[in-house]
Specification:
The protein has helices at residues 18-26, 45-56, 74-80, 100-106, 109-112, 123-126, 133-141, 149-153, 179-189, 203-206, 208-217; strands spanning 3-7, 30-32, 62-67, 85-89, 166-171, 195-197. By secondary structure, the chain is α/β, with parallel strands linked by helices. The protein has a six-stranded parallel β-sheet, with helices on both faces.
Length: 222
Amino acid sequence: MRTFVLIHGAGDAGWYWHLVAAELRARGYGVLAPDLPVGDDALTLDDYADAVVEAAGDRDGLVVVGQSFGAFTAPLVAARRPIASLVLVAGMVPAPGESADRWWTGSGYAEAVRHRAGQGGDPYAAFYHDVPRELAEEAVRRERAHPSPAASAQPWPLDSWPDVPTRFVLCREDRFLPPGFLRRLVRKRLAVVPEEIAAGHCAALSRPVELAGLLAAGAGDR
């Protein structure tokens, strides 16, 4: 049976995935959505990957999903143990040796948004514009200090992308990571064609049924 391992993005916890997790379980899949560790500024990407591997235990048939910053962690899990496939959802696709701190310029993001009007630091405008307000407020209340400074500064430690089937789900209404920018980045760094969903950056909260269906459709055998 396939088990989805859902890795949250920056500032989040496993709760971010709770609606998608319920949909996947209803379809007969196993689901893990661990809280990555916080509270220590020295925590690294390796610590995050180790926490996911520990949570997965000896389960096989894993589909590892990384949301946004979770794309820095998900491939490290694939490098540590066998998995069936990787999926990035609105993912910050890293290059070998590139830290998250340097990703904003190295990926071309800074140039891509140079002429774009800002959101004034409003998370409801930038991240949760299509999420029901009550749910968005709950997400904001649950924000955590993740990633750590050490994890953000750490050069991505893999020499190349793991040799596993990889998919990318692009959010067409993403106000944080512009869709045109991500299409170019995914083509350049992963050489795959993104699958697309009509959602903002936090699709697991705004379109959980649709996202779960997309994840399940490419998961293979239960």
